[in-house]
Amino acid sequence: QVQLVESGGGLVQAGGSLRLSCAVSRSIFSFGVMRWYRQGPGKQRESVELIASGGSTNYAESVKGRFTISRDNAKNTVYLQMNSLNPEDTGVYYCNAWSPTGYDYWGQGTQVTVSS
Known about the structure:
Blueprint: E1 4-7, E2 10-13, E3 18-24, E4 33-39, E5 46-52, E6 57-59, E7 67-72, E8 77-82, E9 91-98, E10 104-106, E11 110-115
Parallel strand pairs: 2-11
Antiparallel strand pairs: 1-3, 3-8, 4-5, 4-9, 5-6, 7-8, 9-10, 9-11
């Protein structure tokens, strides 16, 4: 069983920054896509950013220019650098590891709260 452990969430004022980490219990290179999702209060879970094994990325329009996803294959860790945070970014952030062979793993989530 693969484990994903998110960390780095917390309370920050609007305009501030946070860096989330997702530590994976096995090689992340084996997964086709690593992705960050978030779920705000009363909202559906949405994809925030993804990074493929080849390094290509895709961002939600709402975070373009503010969030950056990266991966360190040697540490089996994926990061989400979040800058210029606003209250609409509040939610639980989840890490997901997916492969076209049928693997689909989730972390337990980390809370991000942005105060105005």
